[in-house]
Each structure stands twice: as C-alpha cells, then as structure tokens.
From TrEMBL:
Residues 1-12 have a biased composition (Basic residues). One of its GO terms (biological process) is cell division. InterPro entries: FtsQ_DivIB (IPR050487). It comes from Butyrivibrio fibrisolvens DSM 3071. One of its GO terms (cellular component) is plasma membrane. The chain crosses the membrane at residues 106-127. The keyword DNA-binding does not apply. Residues 27-65 have a biased composition (Low complexity). Keywords: Cell cycle, Cell division, Cell membrane, Membrane, Transmembrane, Transmembrane helix. It comes from the Bacteria. This is Cell division protein FtsQ. Residues 1-87 are annotated as: Disordered.
Amino acid sequence: MSNMTKKKRRHPQGAYAAGRSQAVRASSGRTSSGRSSSVKSSSVRPSSVRPSSVRSSSGRSSSGRPQKESAVSPVKRNRKIIEPAFRKPKKPRLSPLEMLRLHKSILILVFTIGLIVLLGIGGIQYVRSHYRVKTANVVGNTYYTDEEIQDMVMNGMFAHNSLYLSFKYHNKSIVNIPFIEKITVDIKSADTIDIRVYEKALAGCISYLENYMYFDREGIIVEGSSELLEGVPVVKGLKFDSVVLYEALPVEDKSVFSEILDLTQLLSKYSLSADQMYFDKGYNVYLYFDNIEVAIGSKKNIDEKVIQLPYILPSLEGKKGTLHLEDYDENTESVRFEEAS
C-alpha cells in the first residue's frame, strides 16, 4: 500500500518532467529520434506543458497534498514600442547685426555682377566703333567688281569689324567661288583691310548646250555659266565628243590649250579682247574683232604678230575683211588686208 502511495506521489512529478521534455523537444523542432517534428515550434505554447495541467482545480494533486508552484515564468508577449514623433528644430532667429551682414554680402554680389555687365557692354561698343572697316582695297579681280568681292568677304553679323575679320580669315582663304582660286584678307589697321583675289587662269570657253564651259591651260573644264565673261574668248573649231566638268576636253592635240592660254594672256597684256578664236583642221588660229578677221596662222612668231594688232586695228575700224599675218616676222615691212566686197 505504501508502495502504491509512493508511486502516486511520484506520478505528478513524472508528468511534469515529461511535459518539460516535450516542450524542450517541441521548441527545438526535433523528436527524440533526431528528425524534424511535424509540429511547428510556434504552435506549442509553454502553457500546455506547465505543471498546472496535471493538477486538480483545487490546487492539489491526486494524493490530496498541496502542489508547489512551478518555477517556470509565464511567456511575455511582444509589446510594440512607440517612438516619439520627430520634431524639426526651430531655426534660430538672426540678430540685426547678422541680418545686416547677410544683406551686405548680397548687395556686394549684385553690384559686382552689374559692374561686369556694364564693362562688357562698354567693351563691345568700343570694339564695334573703333574697329569698323572704312576702307577695303581689292586687287587681282577681273571677273568680279570690287563691290562684289567686298560682299563675298564682309558678310555676317560682324562683317564690317576688322578685329572679327582678322580672326575669321587668319591663315585661311575663301574658296569655292566660281572663276576664283582663292581670296585672302589682310588687316592693315583698325579701319583698313586689303583683299587679294587669285582668279583661275581661264584659257577660253566653248559654247555647249546654251552654256559657256570655261577651261584652263590643260583643257580641264573648271566652270560652267550662262554668262560670257569679258576678256575670255569663245573658242571654236575644236572637235570633241563630250564635255564633263572638272575633266579635260577630249581633243586630238592637247597642246592646243596651252597655246590658247598664251594667246589669251597676250591679248590681255595689250588690252585686246577678241570676240572669237577659231582653229581649223591644221590648228591654224584665227581671231575675230567685230568685222575684222585676223589670220594668225601657226604659233610661230605669235608674239610679234599680236604686238602689231594695237597699231593696225584702229586703222581698220568700220571696215570688214581679213588681215593676213600668217607669214609675219620681224623682217616684214608691210601686211596685207583683204577687204570684203
């Protein structure tokens, strides 16, 4: 009987120990065999394994003796900590002295900016008035007038300012202008500039499809225009199949182009301007001045032949016919003029 009593007394303690071990195993998430428990640790509460679960409602065990309270403390619930609201610190009020210093700095800044703007406007006005071009000297132009060349050079907002032109054309020339190789600008003084024109050496031109195609001493077509330039003769009698810009005319004798240029330059030297220049099959040349035909012949003694023209042509004004200079040389005493009937 005593043994039974003892067993009954130890029974609550055994149940309590079993509950404790079960709670420990549940919290670790594993069983005694080492495998993961199917019950999650969060679903097991400490209150389910407390000793109070094996006590009677009167606080006594089944033997009738009072049971001691468990040393296990109750689980505390998480409490939400409420932080105090953040308050923006108030700006300290400026003293009158500090406000005066701040306004003084702003006034100095505004004054400095205004002074810079005024100096800039004054400098611009000085440059525009002091460096304004009043004299523009143009040299080397025959195909364009002085006014046309000046308009080509001085264009834009600051076109008539010599300081601007000195920067614009420093080590630079104007190109891509018809009949002109390049144009250079030299600043002589604050109000004077020199404009030098380098024209293309045009030997002559041919009439092609109602336009004039200009060629140089190598026969290369350098320009095309509907206008006939003064001092450039229209060459006829040359045989060619096609005309292509920037390509040489396809003629049989290429040396004829240098002969044309030499003859054109000789005429210009003696202030003569032929209306036409004609080459026959043997490349003998004929010049036409109004109603006068001048038979030059071959290029032999061509300089001596051209020199005689300024003296002979005035005497033939108003007449119509052919002046024969084919056999003229330095020993010739007279020339023959065959007047047309």
